[in-house]
Design goal:
This protein has about 500 residues and is of the alpha/beta class. Helix content is about 30%, strand content about 20%. It has 14 helices and 22 strands.
């Protein structure tokens, strides 16, 4: 919560009730909203950003668009189709919790006013955030994620630095390095922790995806022309500097002695993406720990249905697969709702969307075979960290402090991430453990020898910082006299739980 205004709340919170409520305005949420609204259902789509599109379709600033154009114009076209279909689009709306009924979502608008959101169907399309692993010096100014560098390049046409090293793991590193090169940045090198680009039998599956091969070849060619080296099997050992990062040391994974140091003014490090599942978990959706990624992922079927009736999780929140996969998941969830509402889509559309999702799943599986699993990387890179490495940057908790708590044999209850959180405050900062949770769990396992249920802290209310006045208004206003936004369908004003079968 933010200490923004202690003034007393005034008026009743607005209550928005619709057939379908969608949280997240990225590729998945937009694709679902377009189909559902076009079919005549009342749809409200909320997103915390000023503009729709998510990270993938993020719009450039007007000045950048006028001078350099839109790097993904199809995103703007999709947003316009969603609005034209009649979906209500609410930007600058932050969903921060779930009401006591287990269905009503609690949010604040851009002015900090409380809003209650209800839908007979809830679609959670909250996307993903970047996976980061700590190392000495990662808290220095100038150290950022590849996604942030890409955002600056695409939306602001601004380089993150003049001499930049890109590191981590995953196919996202190469396009980020190319974007920096296009801006005139000297990219010192790309340090990929795995060896995905070495010829081997597993890579033969890429021949079934010629478009992706051409895309990869384009990135490699552009980097080769700019004389940017790609070091496979290497990771960042440490970053150093005073007021900001000035040098980075890179070494072969598993062999820290074979290290090289490079002068830089910015460092971009990321190990792919993690599903953003806070809201799905707060709604009580079943989750499982993915053996490959180590992430807590909602249990869904191909249509996005969860264990909660009428609650769908789609897009990257259901598992990382990229923007095309997110859009396919959004379509299938929309088609499933339309079938349940007695408004089935054309059979060819349903078959086409299912076939597309299966094809994309095969490519995702191939990527998983070529790149090292995030769970394995975490287990190999985090436990050897020096004791003074900052693990939780929000609360300044070091690896030494976490190991000390995890190794206390006299603690009556089994030591897990929650016990470490209670004793050290790791995970209690503004990010709520989204950045440090994986590393904390890895350290606990390495010391205590136990496997935690999930590499994530439990979802707590509020899942996002909110003004205190919004919280006071939500808690003190009687729910018996809600202010309901006009336009809600009569059916939506009934019970929150949708009917499982409809004619």
């Amino acid at each position: 919560m933010t200490a923004d205004h202690w003034n007393e709340p005034s008026g009743a919170p607005e209550t928005v009730t619709r057939d379908v409520l969608i949280v997240g305005g990225g590729p998945a949420g937009l694709s679902a909203a377009e189909r559902l609204a076009a079919a005549g259902l009342t749809v409200t789509l909320v997103d915390e950003q000023p503009e729709l599109g998510g990270q993938y379709y993020r719009r450039p600033t007007p000045a950048v668009a006028e001078r350099w154009g839109d790097h993904r114009p199809e995103g703007g076209a999709l947003v316009e189709r969603v609005r034209a279909a009649g979906a209500e689009c609410r930007t600058r709306h932050t969903v921060w919790g779930v009401d006591d009924d287990g269905r009503t979502l609690l949010a604040v608008d851009g002015e900090g006013r409380p809003v209650r959101l209800r839908g007979r169907y809830l679609i959670i399309a909250t996307g993903a955030y970047e996976r980061v692993l700590p190392f000495p010096g990662w808290q220095l100014p100038g150290v950022a994620t590849p996604g942030f560098a890409q955002h600056l390049a695409a939306s602001e046409h601004t380089p993150i630095g003049e001499r930049v090293l890109v590191a981590g793991s995953g196919p996202f590193l190469l396009p980020v390095a190319c974007s920096l090169v296009d801006l005139g940045v000297t990219v010192v090198g790309v340090a990929e922790a795995g060896t995905p680009y070495r010829p081997r039998p597993a890579a033969l599956g890429a021949l079934r995806h010629p478009a992706r091969l051409r895309e990869l070849a384009g990135y490699v060619t552009r980097l080769a022309r700019a004389r940017v080296p790609i070091w496979q099997g290497h990771s960042v050992v440490r970053a150093e500097g005073t007021d900001r990062v000035s040098s980075v040391t890179v070494a072969a994974v598993g062999d820290p002695a074979a290290a090289r140091t490079f002068l830089v003014d910015a460092l971009c490090v990321g190990y792919g993406f993690r599903p953003q599942t806070d809201l799905a978990r707060m709604l009580g959706c079943d989750v499982r720990t993915d053996a490959v990624t180590g992430d807590a992922t909602p249990v869904t079927d191909p249509r996005g249905r969860t264990s909660r009736p009428g609650v769908y999780v789609i897009g990257e929140a259901a598992g990382i697969g990229g923007a095309p996969t997110a859009r396919a998941r959004g379509l299938l969830a929309a088609f499933d709702i339309l079938i349940r509402e007695g408004r089935p889509p054309a059979r060819r559309d349903l078959l086409r969307a299912g076939a597309a999702l299966r094809g994309l799943a095969r490519f995702t599986e191939l990527t998983g075979r070529l790149f090292p699993s995030p769970a394995r990387l975490t287990s190999s890179l985090v436990p050897p960290l020096p004791g003074d490495t900052m693990i939780c940057r929000c609360e300044a908790v070091t690896a030494r402090e976490i190991r000390a708590v995890a190794g206390e044999a006299e603690v009556p209850a089994p030591v897990d991430v929650n016990a470490v959180k209670a004793r050290t405050r790791a995970g209690m900062g503004p990010c709520q453990g989204r950045e440090c949770g994986v590393a904390v769990a890895a350290l606990v396992r390495s010391v205590a020898g136990r496997t935690t249920d999930a590499n994530v802290f439990p979802a707590r209310t509020p899942i996002r910082p909110i003004p205190l006045r919004a919280l006071l208004a939500t808690e003190t206003t009687p729910e018996t006299t809600p202010k309901t936004t006009p336009g809600a369908s009569p059916d939506a004003l009934g019970p929150a739980t949708p009917q499982e079968e409809r004619p």
